[in-house]
Specification:
By secondary structure, the protein is of the alpha/beta class. The protein is 34% helix and 26% strand. The protein is globular. The two termini are 17 Å apart. The protein binds adenosine-5'-triphosphate and magnesium ion.
């Protein structure tokens, strides 16, 4: 089993404004842990830094500072090709992430061959069919030779999931995996991810704008606002008892049907401009901590040993 420790991650981009270049801090001292068999939801509005964290975890971007430590149960660090095999990503857009010129079989066989998971062509074919069955794309024999445009959006996303798991993923980063799908099929894909997570004891980072699915499909929620973690805790605690104004704002924007209609009183109207991202409410500690400073590391250290 594989565990991920993200500590004090910072990512600065240099962006052009007029003739000058200025620094944009997309991720500001973020720490989080991904452990086998658990899902952490990373929620926040557009531009809050969610995909940047996903890209750093999957080695598509380098962090400006901070560390991502990935290790096996016995402490052996996961590096190089093993890292690329074990840490896999499912992208938001199932239309853009598959190559229209290649068959479904090709998409799943490729990572098997690259990561030397199978030895013969027959073995590879067998494994492709197995993976298609695991993501409920049946009959696998008739799906395998098709091209992506011959599948629905939901089916394509299932192919993307099969492709991520094929090389033996232990850590799955799902960046808004259902936001481009029709509402009616989202639940099916999320349930599939949930089942695979349980069966393979995957460590999952589920990135979403949607608090309701974050609550339903994750154990822990980390709320990101302008690059900083402003609230974290068990999923139910964050949703039912939000402390930070930004989380309250998110909850107001997406009322949870189980909580009944939210009464918006004068007090409950939150002034967006006054939202402070220098503090973070940590439900595990039951207290406020500094956000966006190296001191926020203390939150994680203090949480060690408690049920995450
Ligand atoms: N390659 C880049 N160069 C410059 N700025 C970037 C780059 N990638 C991201 N950014 C900026 O970093 C910030 C965080 O972007 P990111 O894509 O991580 O947000 P996000 O939370 O995933 O948003 P969304 O919900 O819209 O996907 C944004 O302000 C974005 O404009
Ligand atoms: Mg994004």
């Amino acid at each position: 089993m594989t565990t991920v420790h993200v500590t004090d991650l910072v990512k600065d981009y240099s962006i052009r404004s007029g003739l000058r270049r200025r620094r944009l801090r997309a991720v500001d001292h973020v720490s989080l842990d991904l452990v086998p068999g658990r899902t952490v939801a990373l929620v926040g509005e557009s531009g809050s830094g969610k995909s940047t964290i996903a890209k750093i975890l999957t080695r598509m971007e380098k962090p400006t500072s901070g560390t991502v430590e990935v290790a096996l149960d016995d402490g052996t660090p996961v590096r190089g090709p093993m890292y690329l095999r074990q840490v896999q990503m499912v992208f938001q857009d199932p239309f853009a992430s598959l190559n229209p010129f290649h068959s479904i079989e090709h998409h799943i066989a490729r990572p098997l061959l690259i990561h030397e998971r199978t030895r013969t062509a027959a073995q590879t074919h067998e494994r492709v069919l197995e993976m298609l069955e695991r993501v409920n794309l049946t009959p696998a024999e008739t799906i395998a030779p098709r091209r992506p445009h011959e599948l629905s959006g939901g089916q394509r996303q299932r192919v993307a999931i099969a492709r991520a798991l094929a090389p033996g993923a232990q850590v799955l980063i799902a960046d808004e995996p259902v936001s481009m799908l029709d509402v009616s099929i989202r639940l099916g894909v999320l349930n599939l991810l949930g089942r695979l997570q349980r069966e393979d004891r995957l460590a999952v980072l589920y990135i979403t704008h949607d608090l309701a699915t974050a609550r339903h499909f994750s154990d822990e929620i980390v709320v990101l606002y302008r690059g900083r973690v402003v609230e974290r805790g068990p999923a139910d605690a964050v949703i039912l008892d939000p402390h930070h104004d930004y989380t309250k704002l998110l909850a107001q924007a997406a009322p949870d049907p189980e909580r009944g209609p939210e009464r918006v009183t004068a007090e409950a109207v939150i002034d967006r401009d006054a939202i402070d991202n220098s503090v973070c409410y940590d439900h595990f500690l039951g207290e406020w901590v500094q956000a966006g400073t190296p001191a926020a590391r203390g939150a994680r250290a203090g949480r060690a040993g408690q049920p995450a």
